[in-house]
Amino acid sequence: MPAAAALTETPPLGAPVYQLRNVGKTYARNAIKALDSVNLTLTQGSFSSVIGSSGCGKSTLLKIMSGLIPPSTGRVVLQGKPVTGPRRDIGMMFQQATLFPWRTTLENIVLPIEIRDGKAAAKAARDKARALLELVGLKGFENTYPGELSGGMAQRASICRMLITEPAVLLLDEPFSALDELTRDFMNMELQRICTSRNATAFLVTHSIPEAVILSDVVYVMKPRPGHIAEVVEIDLPRPRTLDMMTTPKFGAIVEHIRSRLDKEAFI
């Protein structure tokens, strides 16, 4: 094991926010077991990732955490309340920006509030949306349409749309996988900055070991058939993280440890 060490109104920094206990999921009348006995805890202000091969249950896990599907067994709790369906305090971001092309950037960002509380509430939230746009470096793009934004800019707008409702936890489904490598690196650093500035609690699904390591306090390594946590790797790298860290021996040792564990579990 390399130098990967200790873990790290709003709960105090480090307080448990999201907890899964013995979560399992079966399909086809219990003939197919997708997840088995998954246990994890996300603490306030932490950034966690889950990594594993395609088919290991990462997407199923994220759907359960977002409330889109129920677990077959176990318990899912967010801020002391069971997750039994989609909730306002869960923010979700997908691989594609999924912005509506007929709405401006600002209109797209306040859309969750408009759907939830009506047009008057969405109008009242526009100043908050403008502040978020400034936070992610999109000040001045309020009235542009998605077709006029680059891929990275569209994803930053999606981050704003996720944050506008002030969720307790951010669930990220490979949000930058469609971007080129340079833009992806930049967006990862932006995501770190945004989460740090808001003391956000985040959980990322990724296929990239370096991405998981550079962003996370904790990396959950998943083993497939059925999917479960094979190892919890605690990342002892100083914050703020920088791209330069990816060239250091310590970073390389952590990446190699996770890669070796994936190989050991017969991942491809």
Write the layout of secondary structure elements.
Blueprint: E1 16-27, E2 32-43, E3 47-51, H1 58-66, E4 73-78, E5 81-82, E6 90-93, H2 105-109, H3 111-117, H4 119-124, H5 126-135, H6 151-163, E7 169-173, H7 181-197, E8 202-206, H8 209-215, E9 218-223, E10 228-234, H9 249-264
Parallel strand pairs: 3-8, 3-9, 6-7, 7-8
Antiparallel strand pairs: 1-2, 1-4, 4-5, 9-10
Helix pairs in contact: 8-9
Write a brief caption for the model.
Belongs to the ABC transporter superfamily. The chain is an alpha/beta fold. It is 34% helix and 24% strand.
Write a structural description:
The protein is of the alpha/beta class. It has a domain at 1-86 and 201-268: P-loop containing nucleotide triphosphate hydrolases (Rossmann fold), CATH 3.40.50. The chain is 34% helix and 24% strand. The protein contains nine helices and ten strands. It has helices spanning 58-66, 105-109, 111-117, 119-124, 126-135, 151-163, 181-197, 209-215, 249-264, and strands at 16-27, 32-43, 47-51, 73-78, 81-82, 90-93, 169-173, 202-206, 218-223, 228-234. The strands form two sheets. The chain has a six-stranded mixed beta sheet with strand order 6-7-8-3-9-10, with helices on both faces. Strands 2-1-4-5 form a four-stranded antiparallel beta sheet, with helices on one face. A hairpin with a 2-residue loop joins β4 (73-78) and β5. The longest helix has 17 residues, at 181-197. The protein is globular, with a radius of gyration of 19 Å. The relative contact order is 0.19. The model is unreliable at 1-8 (pLDDT under 50). It holds the Pfam family ABC_tran. Keywords: ATP-binding, Nucleotide-binding, Transport. Residues 18-249 form the ABC transporter domain. This is ABC transporter ATP-binding protein. Belongs to the ABC transporter superfamily.
